[in-house]
Write a structure and sequence with these properties.
Layout: H1 22-32, H2 37-47, H3 51-117, H4 122-128
């Protein structure tokens, strides 16, 4: 029998369900997923399992997958919202930078004017705002 998901050389031989670690349970669920009810019964008999156990494992696997999918969708939404917020904040910052650029340039011009003409800056301020 093919052991699909188990490491090479490892075989499922245990008949004690307590020894079935999650990896082996997943392997059994995947190996029986496409089997008919009769084939499932034969598989379970050869492995010392009950059909009910494999069906329970399958149901648990589906629930876990659905939960992970829901969590992934929620995480994607949070990430998308965070990216949108970041874009908004970057735009706001650019607007504020542009708004501060003009007064900073005028202040630099006033200082240069004072250095060149040696004024106290009173005449320069009138000149710059005309």
């Amino acid at each position: 029998m093919e052991q699909g998901l188990l490491p090479e050389g490892e075989k499922i031989t245990s008949v004690d369900v307590k020894d079935w670690i999650p990896k082996r349970r997943s392997s059994a669920v995947l190996e029986t997923a496409t089997r008919s009810e009769e084939e499932l019964t034969d598989y379970c008999r050869s492995m010392g399992l009950l059909v009910k156990q494999v069906k329970e494992w399958r149901a648990i696997s589906i629930q876990v997958d659905e939960k992970e999918l829901t969590e992934n969708i929620r995480a994607d939404r949070v990430l998308r919202d965070a990216k949108n917020k970041l874009r908004e904040l970057e735009k706001e910052l650019q607007c504020k930078d542009k708004a501060l650029a003009e007064p900073a340039a005028l202040l630099m011009l006033r200082k240069k004017f004072n250095v060149i003409w040696g004024n106290s800056g009173e005449d320069a301020s009138e000149f710059l705002y005309l």
